[in-house]
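Appendix B. One record, verbatim.
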Amino acid sequence: MNEPASTLILLEMIFCDFENDPDILSSYFERLQLTLESLSKQQVPAHAELSVVVYVSQDKGTWIDKVQGEIDRWAEVRDARVSITTHTYDHPGIGYPEGDPTRVDWQKNPSKHAPYREQLFTSSCAAVDFGAYDRLIRVTLDDDDIWLPWHTTTLVTVAEAARSDERIAHQEDLALGLLDVNLAYIGDHEVEVRTVALERTLTGDKFYVIDKPGARDDLAKRSAWSIPEIMDKEQQRKMAHHGVGLYAVRNFVAGFVYMRWGQNLSRQRKDGFQLVGLGSQTLSTARDVLGLSQKQVPTGRTSELWFGILPGRFKVEAKRRGRRLEVSTNFDDVKKSGAQLALQVMRGNKRIDVRAYGQSANAVFEDVPPAVTVRAFIRRDGEVTDRAASQEV
């Protein structure tokens, strides 16, 4: 039996990127304190190393020293195989004009997007000897979320299992997404921790597996921030075009905690994305989350690790070319045996054209007036099992 690969887990995170409001910085620093404590208590396998890089922009001023002080505070707690460092960077003098101003994530976290995330990696890892490792795991984490002590070990275990699992034929880089997660909803008087399986993977739970990293000159482009949250067949095909095998993972004890602090940027609750509820518990404070043990975290594990891909949600897209309407769906991805698809072209509440139930996932409608939508229906055993609607075109 071959010896396990020597693995470097490179975890990147950004403290408040393009944010300078003193009150917001103070609030997020309190959250970051828990994050850094959780990372300092990681249990790392003997054949692996965890390197955490915290990016802090130069304009943060005294916050740079505060972040470093918090890292130093936990130095004696950390395993010898865990290192946590800061890396400072400058925002472009002209800002980030190519970003989408309507997207909050672009406004507040532009450095998580290309090409800035690649520049951060290149500058922070210039001195890293990737040739000393057989495997590189690249993962990211938001500055207000938590890893429970065994999460690093889970990443290493999953990466090793993926390379030997017969369901994964892809031999190049892998992008893996863990679906089982802890959601911590922090209220004024208590913290509700729900352990669930989601139909998507979150930052902190999605990562690249790259073998023989020392032989590569393209590591910068494999940022975990670029891995899609949605783990469906469509995204798997897109990633395959870039030489990456995309797979979802289940059947492990969830060690990532998605901390919901109330008024933050992302969608507060994830109920709409839940596949399975595994259990819940109530704690007194946010800091109590750090004390959860593996035995306390509910798991639906009934077998070995599961690798696969989800069918995704049913959707329909309409594109206009003059009076010609081209309609596409993911019916082939989501359909079950015996299912059929029908389409209706709608102008307001008026149905102006239809395509009867059949097996084709796509259709073309001619001489279609402007301002229409397309409704799509899946029927199986005489009943409509799913429906979707396009945007107006």
